[in-house]
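Structural biology now treats backbone shape like a language. To illustrate, our science desk offers a sequence and the tokens encoding its fold:
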Amino acid sequence: MQVIVAHNRYREAQPSGENTIVDQEIIQLRAAGAAVQPFLRSSDEIAEFSPAAKALLPISPIYAPKAQQELSRLITEHRPDVLHLHNPYPLLSPWVVRTAHKHGVPVVQTVHNYRQVCSSGLYFRDGRICQDCRGRALGVPAIVHRCYRGSRAQSALMATTLAVHRPTWRSVDRYIALTSGIAAHLRDYGIPEDRIVVKPNAIPDPGAAPPLGQGFLFFGRLSPEKGVGLLLDAWRRHPVGALGPLRIAGDGELRPLAEAAAAERADVEFLGPLDRAGVAAALRATAVVLAVPTWHDVLPTVVIEALAAGRPVLGTALGGIPYLVGADDPAGLAGWLVPADPGALAAALPSAREAAGTVAPLARARYERTFHPDVVTKQLLDVYAGLRR
């Protein structure tokens, strides 16, 4: 199996975390015997561009001529069975789909965000869920609200790009939806059911789950949409010490909020940013992991990490979280789902604490069944093989 994997790395960290996930997927494909040729670009390269190249940047989301030339050379040299596209913006452009098709190569795209419709890709604006551009031929609200990089001009360009490339996206041979929520988004966009496959990301197996620790763990980016404010509001509705410890790990604009809570209450501990070993230690120390975003988070990797460690998840019923914890899994939920409301979250905390030991085996079993690299890589290879028939 010959595969070209195309991806534009973002300059800034992204909610879906795809920069590291794409690298891991390439490693897993190669381990399974696929011949993978990366076609990767990074937005960091822009700083090194010549003045002439920078002058062409405004049109690159619509049509990036250098990328098309380089992809054509790669296809001619490697004769791939499939092009697997992740993020095309801004240096690849969705035009790579047309370039691949011109050479007779089918295209698979993994959808990491909502950018078929939403210029920011998030369905989130001004601290709330926003879907104002759904169903519009041109995303005028995105322009008005400067949704792309805080610029009206760049937002106008992105909204135009999405309108121009609507036929391009509808020509993709197979879409990989990371969750059932993304599959619903694609169907709403007009993609036929038979061109959508639900296949999540995988993370490496950390090994057998250790015995449960105590209390609750929140880890990830400390930003409004990730729900740390919602969590602290819910936590304060219980007496100090009633639920065991709450540990908060991460960094971001709401770090002062977490630090203040730790100073205020003896049952809140702020761990700061953690490396991989630190995350593993924090998971061992906890009984329940909290994933409480207030937006339609596509696929928060923290949930998969929790399941891999055998920790059940208490999460908000938004975005990809219901899929991740197994809302449709006949084997049972690997956690609990609540509305993004502090009262509902506060009411669920004692129940989650009491039932953690019962639900923990379901968490590890769901990881092994759904998110293990062996399972996910086989799914991906089956998607590729289906396009060769």
Q: What stands out?
A: The first helix runs from residue 18 to 31. The first strand starts at residue 2 and ends at 9. Residues 4 and 258 are 43 Å apart (CA to CA). The chain has 15 helices and 14 strands.
